[in-house]
Known about the structure:
The chain is of the alpha+beta class. 46% of the residues lie in helices and 23% in strands. The chain has 9 helices and 10 strands. Strand 1 and strand 2 (95-102) form a beta hairpin. The two termini are 21 Å apart.
Amino acid sequence: MSGHSKWATIKQKKAALDAKRGKSFTRIIKEITIAARNGGDPDGNPRLRTAIVAAKAVSMPADNIKKAIMRGTGELEGGQIDEVMFEGYGPGGAAVLVNVATDNRNRTVSELRHAFSKNGGNMGEQGSVAWMFERKSQIIVDGDKAGEDQLMSVALDAGADDLRNDGGNWVVLSPPESHDAVLAAIQKAGIPTEEAEIAMVPKNLMRLEGKNASAMLRLTEVLEEHDDVQNVYSNFDIDEKELEALAQ
Length: 248
């Protein structure tokens, strides 16, 4: 997801820490709650284990993590949260997947449909663009923190199947079931990671330029700011210099 991860890097530099932390807390708490439905023991629940690691990375208090797990397992009462993947097209025809965790599906559908239409895109039917993506472990490493040969050797030995250069970052792609092993191997080698998640990675990229590029970035930003949105995935790619200029 070349364009998307570059844009995420730029946003990290521009975002205010407090606002970013507040939004990330909400997303991660929802993810922990959903993951814990399949068991509250992280040792036997890889998705929960990944969510807890993400929570600790943003210094989430242990009590918040515990309560989110208990809501997921049913030990604590809490509103029903549904996990839904919506599909659509952005400006220029780029494919978009929006991963949502919501307690009111009808409201969320209406609001996302409005966001798409107002920003040059449109919602699609289920299955309309999902086939363009693969579910993969995606680990992002700062290009200055690891050499290609070193990272490739460590990652491939641990079960990764691809290493991509993404405009200053390395992106390590692996089967979802290899996520923990690859991440552990990278960290054991002393290589810091910027981001590690199970993501929907596009099989091919679509280059956008000019108005379509700026409109696509705006749509992505609007979707990511929605309270119910956990992740936005797209197959757009934008030239790095143009991306930097648009982000000013």
